[in-house]
Amino acid sequence: MLNPWRLRLLGLLDSLGTVRAVAETLHMSPSTVSQQLAVLETETHSRLIERSGRRVRLTRTGIALARRGREILAQIAEAEAELRALNDEPIGTVRLGVFQSAIYTLAVPAAARLADSHPHLHVELIESEPHESGAALRSGEVDVIVTTTDYVKFPWDRDLEVVPLGTDPVVLVLPPDHPLARRRVIDLAACAEETWACDRPGSYMAELTQRLCHESGFEPRVACRFSNCLLLLQHVESGRSVALLPALAVPPGTPVVTRELSTPVHRNVAIVRRREAGPRAAVDAVVETLLDHPDIPALSAPGSAGHR
């Protein structure tokens, strides 16, 4: 009989590409992963992996079993959920990956409403930026994510269901006494001589900032790189930098000034989940609650704004 745990290891190897990546995802040693995959080969009487030096790759049989295994695991999860969820009551844990600027505006209020409406459902919130969340969803580290569909490196797949959530504008963030703060709308070219606060290299906002600055004819001179939006806002507040941020990332009352760009830029925000054999009551409840959010001034309805 096939072991579900070993099927998951094979599926992760298919998605992530290396034994080391699988081991790091599951907090195991590479040797343990290799041993379990070897046991799976014995169980199936099939050669699932080809070894070339220190690298491995799946055989045709391995690829077929990995993909069928994902279907089997989804069916097992669905069956377990059905057994636990009497009368369709959402129950269990849903791991929700959310980019930082949507955690306190969207995810925390949703989790609080779910705690009241579905007391047997536990939502685990996990900070997961757009350059991280796609892989986490594909590998099973999270069950559903809030991300942006604008991130070109997102691993889109037919196995994923995308539910539009809304759009928020990308704004220029300035110190309160900055000369440009007197303008209502700003051409980014006016910031060519400014010093910039940016996100980590390779992140969605770092790449967007660099692209927009390049399109405006200059290379941004970076003073700091913070993954924490509050640290970035504090640096701008101190008068040492300017920044581009989604409007959701600037809480009301923050002592900075935000201004629209002369060429508007918007971020498309969406909920993404894995397609599975049937409805999962717990994930469905989380998605429905995220969609049924109270008014958030920075977040417009899907399709109400264009993007670049």
UniProtKB/TrEMBL annotation:
Keyword DNA damage among UniProt keywords: no
Gene3D superfamilies: Periplasmic binding protein-like II, Winged helix-like DNA-binding domain superfamily/Winged helix DNA-binding domain
Gene Ontology cellular-component terms listed: protein-DNA complex
This protein's record includes keyword DNA-binding: yes
Name of the molecule in the record: LysR family transcriptional regulator
Coiled-coil portions: none
Domain of life according to the entry: Bacteria
